[in-house]
Design a protein that fits this description.
The structure is a homotetramer of 255-residue chains. By secondary structure, chain A is of the alpha+beta class. Helix content of chain A is 44%, strand content 16%. In chain A, a hairpin with a 6-residue loop joins strand 6 and strand 7.
């Protein structure tokens, strides 16, 4: 086995979420909903420049606008929340991507281990990551580990990552195809992707991938995908503040 | 039956398609595709202001950019064409909407005959609309009617529309619920909706709803939905000219 | 206008729902869910003949089986409810099909007004159909009409249907294409289709298309699509009784 | 690091695909397609016992039945191929599952590394697995490795798998949560799942995940997912032989 020093490996304990493109505002919900009752008269509102509306902020929306968004959320009228789009760039370990891509109402393009050599960036749990699991399937609770446990995880993950990457490099150096060599890489290696969703799909994602007290339906996501979800929700709240407020107000149930 | 003069009814022979919102450019295809081979380095390109790029037009894209879009289209790599969004406002007769909404990878909000009184706008075939159907299911051809046939269709459709709308009005005036009264309205009454799609979904729609010589798979859409498709394609070609050119160049097969 | 006596027209006030094919049992939920915790050991249960299990009825399932289905429903673990399939044949008026086909997670094939001459079968509201709408959008209530209102609706709908069908026949007789002639037909003409869904998709449909007291999220469907939903739910309850019981028990919220 | 002998690990070079449930026959395509032209008369054919029809085999279908299936495939009428369902049980390495689950029109339930301890079963390339990659992205070709390369891959993969599993076991033994400990496991560990698809979705999968000479659109799948696809296609061909023959006959293009 060729030797790759651990120092050549980059270890991270976080995830990256950046908004790359979006066409998403609370006003988009309103014009879509109002076609039901106003028909062609909804077009005037729809055609207002959303960027201008955004510049003014949510304050420009009227109380009846807030009321409509709340009504739609409460009674689960979902389609008006679909006429918008957000594209995120995400870097996270592969075990997070495995869960992420189970969400079928979204568009994905991911870095390919067949087309490129993967970079030596690996996830290692931070000191405040809970390590102990108690309870039974469906209702696990996670608690902090002790120092010894943290040390074990930290050392084991770092060493295993470095060794696996050395194996990968050795096979590549011997002319083995990337798609074959990569199979020794562990699930904590980072990958990157673009994911595009609308607000309805995002609310479904958030309802399942965050654990928030007071939610009507409790969820128990793995911490690392929740870290993605938290960042996505913060970005979305900036784009569609009234919609996010209504989502919270109605128990974080996706309409 | 109360009398409503035909003159109170609006007859149209066209459809309306307007672009309400979009976040869609050829550059969106490129950054999504390049994450496969470039990973995090694709982000620099992705983060360029697409509006600025759009202002420059497609000329700013390099030959290798065109080549990549062509390659993706030819080999049916579909997902890079999904990271974009277009919202159209459409007015068309209900028989068109019936076909339109069979396309499941899109978001719809439509004027509701339960929530509002429908307006007296009806479709009547124009003088150049083919009226005669020859051939067998799956391969029909449509040919012009003679003067007498055109006159029959024109008069029958106008009279039937006016009578049906009078019946509708009479029931509404008697206090009947809109959702009940509307059932006498014919399929040629206009409705309106917002529909949001990405380019991949739109290409699927266009491949089935336009009849274009030279297409790899022939389609035989009803003329009236094809009128929608033509306008949608023209708008899309303005937003994503290289993608549309590649779509045409590869036989109008949705990737 | 050629005369078609009303007696040549068939009027109905009901809808038809028949189960054509199914592969759907409570046991299908169990094996799919248990792969999470049992992996390959779930296959033994999965491979038991579901027909045999069905013959025995739900009584064969153990208390822990009921408990698992309840847990999945309560915590909105939806995917185990997808590994099954039901194909229904439905006859209903077109205004019902318009609402039905807005449900995108289903497969549809419908009788075509382009490929065949439509039959003179029309919907007319039964004597017990509520005719009066009170309240505001999103929270309408429907109340019985008086005798005069019922008489008006009955006479108007019957006469309008007969006249429209006569217009349709006259244009067909003059050689006009079916797809053109049909545009004068009203929304209460019957169509027929096959629709295939899994239990998760069906629960979403039922949660929106039935109004049931005690549901966690109230819905206000038009009565005629609710008539379809009632029949579909009765058939489904026969196939997957524990799943349907859990659906009811948890507020008719689709997982 | 605790020592786990390689002999305690199970190494495989194949994948498992079993049909668990199905409701899928060529006759299902026919009744769904014929509702377009026959309406309610299609129901008689639909209601024939498909098991009985299956017992007779495809020979019972008439030449016009074959003709209809061929027509639908050729002209890309896709929906009649959706009214059927197949549930497969699949065991394969995680790098295969990663590709598999990018297919969004399917239902998945997979063994969970959060809910259960994963078993020590790992993939190692067989002697006949091509190891060398030539060409450029999008058109790679794979060629056999030499003996030395095969030996390197075999030894490296086996040793890496054993070491990673030992790390996993050591962390579990120290009380670390499964969801944390698993992150050192490599992409060649096996998982298991149930996947449910209809024939249209399966054809899309097969068109992309098998490389077959003569296909209208060439694909370059990784060999290991192609091994799954081959088995799925063989099972499907037994259930729907005319449909599969038409798929092949028309260039393996999913309708």
């Amino acid at each position: 086995m060729s030797e790759i020093p651990e120092s050549a490996i980059q270890f991270r304990s976080d995830v990256t979420v950046e908004l790359v493109r979006s066409s998403a505002s609370d006003a988009d919900v309103l014009f879509a909903a109002r076609v039901s009752t106003l028909g062609e008269q909804s077009l005037a509102a729809a055609s207002r420049d959303p960027a201008a509306a955004g510049a003014e902020g949510a304050d420009e929306l009227l109380p009846r606008d807030r009321g409509l968004i709340n009504f739609l959320m409460r009674d689960r009228h979902g389609t008006p929340f679909e006429h918008n789009s957000m594209t995120f760039y995400v870097q996270a370990p592969i075990f997070v991507f495995r869960e992420f891509m189970r969400h079928r109402i979204a568009s994905y393009n991911e870095e390919s281990g067949r087309y490129r050599e993967l970079r030596p960036v690996f996830y290692v749990p931070a000191a405040d990551r809970n390590l102990i699991q108690v309870g039974k399937p469906g209702a696990y609770e996670f608690l902090p580990g002790d120092d010894k446990q943290h040390q074990l995880v930290d050392q084991t993950v770092r060493a295993a990552s470095a060794r696996a990457f050395a194996d990968y490099q050795e096979m590549l150096a011997a002319g083995i195809a990337r798609e074959v060599a990569r199979m020794v890489l562990p699930l904590n290696i980072y990958s990157s992707m673009y994911v595009t969703m609308n607000a309805r799909s995002l609310m479904n994602f958030l309802s399942l991938r965050r654990h928030v007290d007071g939610a009507a339906f409790p969820s128990f996501p793995q911490r690392e995908i929740e870290m993605c979800a938290e960042q996505m929700e913060a970005i979305w709240a900036g784009l569609m503040p009234l919609t996010q407020a209504a989502f919270i107000g109605h128990g974080r149930v996706a309409p």
